[in-house]
Amino acid sequence: MAISPALLLLIVSCSFAVNVSGYNFSLAEATVAELQQALKQNTLTSRQLVEYYLSQILEINPRIRGIIEVNPDVLTLADKADMERLSGPTNASSGLHGIPILLKDNIATMDKLNTTAGSFALLGSVVPRDAGVVTKLRAAGAIIMGKAALSELAHYRSFTAPSGWSGRGGQALNPYVMSEDPCGSGTGSATSVASNMVAVTLGTETDGSIICPSSVNSVVGIKPTLGLTSRAGVVPISLRQDTVGPICHTVLDAAYVLDAIVGYDPNDNATIAASKFIPPGGYIQFLNANELQGKRLGIVRDQFFVFPNGSYKAQAFENHFQTLSKNGAILVDNLALANINMIYSNESETIALLTASPIRTLAGGISFNLNYSTLVAVVANMQNLIENGIVKLMTQNNLDALITPDATVTVVLAIGGFQGISVPAGYEPRLIEIAYAFEQATKIRKPPTFLVSSNLFSLRFSLICILELII
């Protein structure tokens, strides 16, 4: 992790609790709303908050390697935010103003930070501009804290390398059980939040890289609809599937981030159509603990609730199904998803992912023309599988969301361009309503335990209790 010697000298101890309106809360598990209240009441400064996170990074990061690089200007940015708050500019009212945020290392920043996707091959390269989402974060007053570790090149350097490994960052570890898979390529974004080295991060997803690390590290991840957030300035894998989304402690925090980063970006044409569906007033308005009432939630047991060895995953979730029902949800149980075996055995996604713009020479142009019909057929095949599978299941059963116990569903999300949310135990507004209501009904999240090993694979599920919701 790159922390300059000068920066180390500036780190001071910071109290672990803050008093706001007569009650204390821990900085470790503090929500963005709690931090904002403390900042506005002058019981906490952005500098103190950054110093606290720096102390956490120094203590924890050598153990789990979730952060590749810390912004050498982070304390200067914190002081700037504190001054802005005192002078009262317009962005001081933003939900993220003065809040440190960690970015996955494939998201470009035009500052002193590197953008390498975890690869030494990109170390020292200069980006032409901030990524579109970073421009929006800066406009909202967020503090760019640094870059999170990831599976190198978003796990496309090698299909056999372990999740969370990169040349620059080494092997990132799961803070709950450090011998278990941290999952996905957004590993550092999830593990850094889970271990309280920062409250807010951004990840990217092509197929599972937000949902999967969020699920196994007991945090909230939102994979937005394709085009809802800009991919400009993000090291690409596939324009058909790439998306940028928040990974945070709570649904509330994730909604704050989503509000800040969605919208049109002239450097990403996919945002033109998607921006029309952003609700006026943003996503925070959909946080209502009573929104499970009347929601139809589909359960595909045989295909998503069974381990590869044939044993049943769902036993730990039966209590949560009861919680959903008690809070007014309508469970549509024992559904079957058509084409699921074809989707998971089909190579269409891989072929489409690996087909980028190959034309650099005349020979390349000829080759592309010869193979173009194959690509068209591949994309059409994927679309057909999705239309006759998940789309038909959702529409015929009038479902608001589909519930699964882990990240197995991400291939369906990926090739369909669908949104998803992973929380401990239509449209984004509906998912946020359901996820927030479930979160508030269960309060299931626990801080990490940093166990060295565990022989019980099911322990993760009994501790985390993941729900992934799609529409």
Automatic annotation (TrEMBL):
Coiled coil: none annotated. It comes from the Eukaryota. InterPro entries: Amidase_dom, AS_sf. It holds the Pfam family Amidase. Keywords: Signal. Residues 1-22 form the signal peptide. Residues 49-359 form the Amidase domain. PANTHER family: AMIDASE, OS04G0183300 PROTEIN. This is Amidase domain-containing protein.
